[in-house]
Structure formats: structure tokens, C-alpha cells
Design goal:
The chain is of the alpha+beta class. It has 14 helices and 13 strands. The protein has three domains: about 1-180, Reverse transcriptase/Diguanylate cyclase domain (Alpha-Beta Plaits, 2-Layer Sandwich), CATH 3.30.70.270; about 180-235, Orthogonal Bundle (DNA polymerase, domain 1), CATH 1.10.150.20; about 250-350, Dna Ligase, domain 1 (2-Layer Sandwich), CATH 3.30.1490.100. Strands 5-6-1-7-8 form a five-stranded mixed β-sheet. The protein is globular, with a radius of gyration of 22 Å. It binds thymidine-5'-triphosphate and magnesium ion (MG).
């Protein structure tokens, strides 16, 4: 029995946080813009959330220490993240996008997968749909995105990243393996830095190298993941586009400007983080049950501790109280704290909560 051929789209907004900031502040247009921690004239700690393409030209990247970004690009506009705004824009974009598909899957704040098999009889029709989506997002939100179209989620995702910004890359099922072959293995989803190093040691640099490698040796070296990677390298991915809340957890963390000994200051920051987290869960109509806190001491020793509540909640006070209980044992007069974080997980959607009650 042959499987029905699918057509999948992956949409990824271009430099999302900074794009939203540029839209709100036209005076930033054309300048390098960095969203992230306060750079404090190069002495700031914490990291870059994202940067626009002008700042990327200077070498600034997501996740890089903000102090390094400052060195690379001192003239950029540096902005703190405005999460409530990004979430609001993200939700509106998801509402635009989901109309175009029978199956829709949100994937992080600025990405989504669409299964349009039932709506596009071929790749030409798929291209028309992709162009309509780009046009509607541009008209309604004045933002650009990049879209990849392919026979499965894997190929669509790699394709959306292929030409950025404002790209549209179409990869038909019979072209998938050839399209992937020259790309570095790290472009495959879930191939992290460690795996990349191990693959390099085996002489595997490109996805094509991986596709032609002996699968039994890959299985020996990487177990089930080896088999999985070999399939992916040949452009094979059977995973479905699945409707779900899209997020498994929501978290916020902060690196203090200087290491903190005073428990009250740490707890105050914890309250603020908890507030930011519940703002986000409320905006997505999610109730949570599990709370996790993270603490990093000045020597980078890091601990996390979780608790699952007896009830689902979306209340800031519940989160603040639980987070405080969890963090308290780590606040010791002899240890300075560098970073703290709050995460919530085990979600259900608001409507379900009402039916449960
Ligand atoms: P990405 O889609 O990875 O990045 P991007 O949209 O900024 O840029 P690109 O044009 O390459 O797609 O992430 C979406 C948003 O998530 C990004 O705007 C900011 C946030 N983010 C972080 O806060 N930290 C990170 O390390 C990354 C990668 C993203
Ligand atoms: Mg993006």
C-alpha cells in the first residue's frame, strides 16, 4: 500500500522580536537592533534574544553574551524584550495562518507547520497558498516571514531556513534528498553540537555524507537516533502535523547584573519572573500544574527543583508562592546567586478546565 503524498508548509517569522520592535518604532529602520539583556556599556550580563539582519552582519547572534554583542556592534539599538507584545502579535499571526490548513501545529513563538494536503493538489497550488499567507501576514501585521514547502515536516523546516528573510523555498518529494545533500548535518532538526562533533569524527560533514553512510555503523554509534538520522538525511520523516497547544513549557529567567547574596532581592526578582510567566500563560489561555525553579550560583553550579501542584492554576499568586518554596533552600548566606529562572508545564487549555469543573 503506498502512502498518500503529503504537502507540508513551515512558516518562520523573520528576526521576530526585532521585526516587531522595528514595526512599532519606524525610527529604528535601517539600524542594527538587538533585543536582550541590558548591555550596560559592555559590562552587562545575560544574553541576546535576537538581532535584526543589520546586527547579524556584525556577527551578533541569538544566545550570545550581551557583552560580546556590544563589542561587535556598539552602535546598535539595544532593547529589553517586550514579551506581552510579541505574544500578542504571535497569537494574531497564528490565527491568520491556521485558516489555510486542515492540520496546524504551532511550534514556538514564531513558527508553525501546516498540512495542506487536502487543499493543494500539487506544488504549484501549494506555492499559491504560501504566497497568500505571506501576503496576508504582510498586509495585516506588516511583518515578513519565510516559508518552506515540502513532502514532510523535516524538509519543510529546513526549506524555510534556506532563504531568509522573506523567502519561499519549495522542495518537491523527488527533490528532497538532493536538496538536503549539500547542507551541513547541523541543519537536520535535533542534531546538536555534540552529535555534530561525533559525526565529524566519522568523516560525516554534510547531510549527503550521512545519507550514504552505512546505517548499521550509525546504529552502533548512536543507537535508535542513528537510524533516525539516516532516514532524515534521506529526506524521510513520517511525523504528523499535530494540533496541540504548541508549547510544553513556558519559562523566564534572569541573570543579575551582579551576583546577589541578599535573599530578599532574589525573591523580588522571582516574583517578577512569575508575573511574566503567568502573563504569558493567561494570554494563551493555559492552566499549569508543574512549577520548576532554576538557580545558578556565582561559580555556575546550577540546580533545578520542581513541584507538581494538586490543582491546575493560572494564578500569579500560586506560582509566586510555589516558586518561593522551591527556591528557599538554595538561598544561603554563603552563596551568591547569578541567575534564577521560573518554568511552568503540564498544561491544559482553558476550555477544558471549565468542562472539568
Ligand atoms: P528564531 O525564529 O530562531 O529567530 P528569529 O525569528 O529572531 O530570526 P530568523 O529570521 O533567523 O528566524 O526565534 C524566534 C524568536 O525567539 C526570536 O525573535 C527571539 C526568540 N529567541 C530567544 O529569545 N533566544 C534564542 O536563543 C533564540 C534562537 C530565539
Ligand atoms: Mg524566526
Amino acid at each position: 500500500m503506498s502512502e498518500k503524498k503529503r504537502i507540508i508548509l513551515h512558516i518562520d517569522m523573520d528576526h521576530f522580536y526585532t521585526a516587531v520592535e522595528e514595526r512599532e518604532h519606524p525610527e529604528y529602520k535601517g539600524k542594527p537592533v538587538v533585543v536582550g539583556a541590558d548591555p550596560k556599556q559592555g559590562k552587562g550580563r545575560g544574553v541576546v534574544s535576537t538581532s535584526n539582519y543589520e546586527a547579524r552582519k556584525a556577527g551578533v547572534r541569538s544566545g550570545m553574551p550581551i557583552s560580546r554583542a556590544w563589542k561587535l556592534c556598539p552602535g546598535a539599538v539595544y532593547l529589553p524584550p517586550n514579551f506581552p507584545l510579541y505574544i500578542e502579535v504571535s497569537l494574531r499571526i497564528m490565527d491568520i495562518v491556521r485558516k489555510y490548513a486542515d492540520k496546524f501545529e504551532r511550534w514556538g513563538i514564531d513558527e508553525a507547520f501546516l498540512d495542506i494536503t487536502a487543499r493543494a493538489k500539487d506544488y504549484t497550488e501549494a506555492e499559491t497558498i504560501a504566497k497568500q499567507i505571506k501576503q496576508e501576514i504582510l498586509e495585516k501585521e506588516r511583518l515578513t516571514c519565510s516559508i518552506g514547502v515540502g513532502p514532510n515536516k523535516l524538509v519543510a523546516k529546513v526549506a524555510s531556513d534556506y532563504q531568509k528573510p522573506d523567502g519561499l523555498t519549495i522542495v518537491r518529494d523527488d527533490e528532497a534528498e538532493r536538496f538536503l545533500a549539500p547542507l551541513p548535518v547541523r541543519k537536520l532538526l535535533w542534531v546538536g553540537r555534540k552529535t555534530e562533533e561525533k559525526l565529524k569524527a566519522l568523516g560525516i560533514n554534510t547531510i549527503g555524507d550521512l545519507a550514504h553512510y552505512d546505517p548499521s555503523v550509525l546504529a552502533e554509534n548512536f543507537g535508535v537516533m542513528g537510524t533516525q538520522m539516516h532516514l532524515m538525511a534521506r529526506g524521510i520523516d513520517r511525523s504528523e502535523v499535530e494540533q496541540r497547544t504548541g508549547v510544553k513549557s513556558i519559562s523566564h529567567e534572569t541573570t543579575f547584573e551582579e551576583d546577589i547574596k541578599d535573599a530578599e532581592t532574589v525573591l523580588k526578582a522571582l516574583n517578577t519572573l512569575s508575573e511574566e510567566v503567568t502573563k504569558e500563560t493567561l494570554s494563551q489561555n493555559l492552566f499549569f500544574k508543574t512549577v520548576t525553579v532554576k538557580v545558578r550560583y556565582e561559580n555556575f553550579e546550577t540546580h533545578t527543583r520542581s513541584k507538581t501542584l494538586q490543582f491546575m492554576t493560572n494564578r500569579t499568586q500560586d506560582l509566586q508562592k510555589t516558586a518561593r518554596e522551591l527556591l528557599q533552600p538554595y538561598l544561603r548566606s554563603d552563596r551568591k546567586v547569578r541567575l534564577i529562572g521560573v518554568r511552568v508545564s503540564s498544561f491544559i487549555k482553558g476550555e477544558k478546565q471549565t468542562t472539568l469543573l
